[in-house]
# Entry
Amino acid sequence: MRKTLKFLTLIITMILFSCGGNDKKEGISSDKKEPVKEEVKVPASERINLNNKGVGTITSVDLGLVVDQDMAAHGKEVYDRMCTACHKADKKFIGPSPKGILQRRTPEWVMNMILDPERMVKEDPLAKDLLMEFNGSPMANQNLTKEEARAVLEYFRTL
# Structure
């Protein structure tokens, strides 16, 4: 009788251990695999960051409630002369499109990027990500004055 009891205990123990070890939860059996959630990384050019002012001399920009049309016209002239080799107003090109930029970036960030792109790419994480997104093509420093950069920013408000 003792041998039979020991034998049954051994068999029950073996059955319990042989049934364990799978990844199913709480005895629920299902052959369906749960979908793997892939993290979708938003490209830097589409990412919204309205807290980052960038790295540079511009720490504050006051935008009027209405666009200064004269300043925007001057900004368009500067943009057409200095920026269109790499930027198209309404689509990605060598660099990102400025259309809607102020819905994604602060005015300070935009001006710091225009005025000192080298420093921004070295020290600003978002600018670094943009550099990678656009195949390592750095933005050229066009040596614009603060007034010209501000005019270009005003032009961007009209896009």
